[in-house]
Write a structure and sequence with these properties.
Blueprint: E1 7-19, E2 40-52, E3 59-72, E4 82-93, E5 99-115, E6 122-142, E7 145-149, E8 151-158, E9 173-178
Length: 179
């Protein structure tokens, strides 16, 4: 009976980490001295909120939004900070069955903390947009063993690509991944 209801859910996480090599996303450089003194302790935070329909129905729908941010304690690494988030929609057919399948659709918009070369002040500017589609198949083999197949198709647009003079450093594109 408790399964047979729609639910809201949420999660907030804050954790610390240390990164001894703080590279910029898609900003490779041949001059490694630029990366010197960029090691930093980090504060990583994330927030997820969503809604899901009852899993006792033939199709369960889950809709959620995610947000995340990383803060580098070493202010020399301030330009390596990112924040972003986006929506996700999941449809699962026969969610409580031994074999279920479905589709995940989602997107992430990412901002980079970018220094204005004239004012030397930092501001979060658009960095990238990623969209994903993932069909999935899950089989429960034993009470606590589930095997899953999740091929993902991803399209990513990195807005800073147009400023790169070396096209080998471009990060935009599309591709497949799986797990």
């Amino acid at each position: 009976q408790t399964y047979n209801q729609n639910r809201f859910f949420g999660n907030a996480t804050v954790m610390g980490a240390y990164d001894s090599n703080v590279p910029r996303l898609a900003d490779a450089t041949k001059d490694k001295t630029i990366l010197e003194q960029k090691a930093s302790a980090k504060i990583l935070s994330s927030l997820t909120a969503g809604w899901m329909s009852s899993p006792t129905k033939i199709v369960q729908i889950m809709a959620m939004a995610r947000a995340n941010h990383n803060y580098n304690v070493n202010r020399k690494a301030q330009g390596y900070e990112y924040m972003g988030g986006g929506p996700m929609l999941v449809a699962t057919f026969d969610p409580l069955g031994i074999l279920n399948w479905g589709l995940k659709l989602g997107g992430t918009y990412l901002y980079q903390n970018t220094e204005n070369t004239k004012t030397k002040k930092f501001k979060y500017l658009p960095y990238s947009l990623t969209t994903e589609g993932t069909p999935f198949l899950k089989a429960r083999l034993f009470k606590r063993l589930v095997v899953a197949l999740e091929p993902t198709y991803r399209i990513k647009q990195v807005f800073t690509d147009k400023t790169q003079t070396d096209k080998t450093l471009y990060s935009s594109g599309q591709g497949y991944a799986g797990r």
